[in-house]
Amino acid sequence: MDHLRYFYEYGVDTPLWPHDMESPYGHPTELARLPISAALRAELSELADRYQSSLDQEYPPDPSPWPREEQDRFNARARAALVALRRELGPGWTVDDRFVPVD
């Protein structure tokens, strides 16, 4: 069984990290190596790119500079992407939800 962790991180272009450092899917996980659709791969990549702008570059500990509606929209898309990821990977995979909503 393959095991991934799902979360977004600044400076990283994927929301997936292997549970096992010896994973054949890379560290961080390379989306192109996963058995998922091109559409889901594109959505995960776009979300990871979009997440980068949620950080206050001038003072990172401050709340996100995004307005509430943009935070809510991103968080909803990220949750939907996780559901789609689990569905597409199927029962042979475990994907831990480590997502922290943008706030």
What does this structure look like?
The protein is α+β, with helices and mostly antiparallel strands and 103 residues long. The chain has one domain. It has two helices and three strands, in the order E-E-H-H-E. The protein has helices spanning 38-51, 68-89; strands at residues 2-6, 16-18, 93-97. Helix 1 runs antiparallel to helix 2 (68-89). The mean pLDDT is 95.
Please write the string of helix (H) and strand (E) elements.
EEHHE
Q: Could you tell me how far the N terminus lies from the C terminus, measured between alpha carbons in angstroms?
A: 33 Å
Q: Please give the radius of gyration in angstroms.
A: 14 Å
Please list the strands of the largest sheet in the order they lie side by side: 2-1-3
Number of alpha- plus pi-helical segments: 2
Contiguous runs where pLDDT drops below 50 for at least 5 residues: none
Biggest β-sheet: count, sense, barrel? Answer: 3 strands, mixed
Mean of residue pLDDT values: 95
Classify the secondary structure makeup into a structural class.
alpha+beta
Helix content percent band:
25-40%
Q: Tell me, briefly, the overall form.
A: globular
Count of structural domains: 1
Strand content: 5-15%
Per DSSP E runs of 2 or more residues, the count of β-strands stands at 3
What descriptive keywords fit this protein?
103 residues; alpha+beta; three-stranded mixed β-sheet; 2 helices; 35% helix
Sum this structure up briefly.
The protein is α+β, with helices and mostly antiparallel strands and 103 residues long. The protein contains two helices and three strands; from the N terminus they run ββααβ.
